[in-house]
Amino acid sequence: MKKNWLLLIILFSLSVTTGVYAQKKSKEDKELEKEWKKKLKDMDPLKLKALYDEKNALIQDKTDLNSRVVDLETQLSDKDAEISKVKAQLQENEKQLTDAKAAADKASKNSFGGPMSSNGVVFKVQVGAFKNKDLTKYFKNNKNFSGDVDSDGTKKYTLGFFGDYWEAENFKKYLREMGVKDAWIVAYKDGSRVELKEVLEGATTSNLSK
User: Fold this and answer.
1) Lower Cβ count inside 10 Å, N or C end of the chain?
2) How far apart are CA 15 and CA 12, in angstroms?
3) How many Å apart are CA 199 and CA 10, to the nearest integer?
């Protein structure tokens, strides 16, 4: 008996709630609801299912597109960071080149500073040897930059003119600290390249670092 009364109370509450909700509806809402109920009643269930599936597919497409946008934004951020890193490296390389030229100019003030064909002994610091790279066009604009060509076509490039071996040694160490690991000292006598040992009388083998 109690169960029956409880059921009646619940049904009464639902009917009251539904009635209150119905009263709150405007006339236009009621007409619109009636219209769509009729359309829903007349609609083919398969078409209704197709519309439902299409809606879900569109929602999934939107989710996928949002995910793709996030991925692209992440990739763009990574590219920007990579570009910034490359620019910073380029600026550092340009600074090192400027510092090397300034050091060569400063060192040349205490050296012979003459052309390669001048008499006497001149020490230079070789910075590279290539067969397929020709940098001779830079010789005209920088008196501290010069080079030789071997019989096999290998081009050897040097920086600086030093009348003192130890000035050349200090410059070589400076270049190596800057990253020019292959920098080493070469000697010229009367304008011709000679073995370093020939011009360093009394120097020990440990001093002839290459």
Assistant:
1) N
2) 5
3) 115
Which strands form 145-149's sheet, in the order they lie side by side?
145-149, 155-162, 121-130, 184-189, 192-194
Residue 17, helix vs strand vs coil: helix
pLDDT along the chain (210 residues), means of 10: 50 50 65 73 69 81 86 85 83 72 57 45 85 71 74 81 87 86 85 82 45
pTM beyond 0.70, yes or no: no
Q: What is the pLDDT of residue 57?
A: 85
Give the pLDDT confidence score for residue 130 in this predicted structure: 78
Distance separating alpha carbons of residues 105 and 143, to the nearest angstrom: 9
- Give the separation between CA 81 and CA 152, rounded to whole angstroms: 44
CA atoms within 13 Å, Cβ hemisphere of 118 = 14
Tokens, residue 57: 């597919």
Are the beta carbons of 157 and 128 closer than 8 angstroms? yes
Domains in the chain: boundaries: 110-207
Look up residue 130 and give its two tokens: 């290539």
Give CB contacts under 8 A, 24+ apart, made by 176-184.
178/96, 178/99, 178/100, 179/96, 180/100, 180/127, 182/126, 182/127, 182/128, 183/125, 183/126, 183/127, 184/125, 184/126, 184/209, 184/210
pLDDT value, residue 11: 52
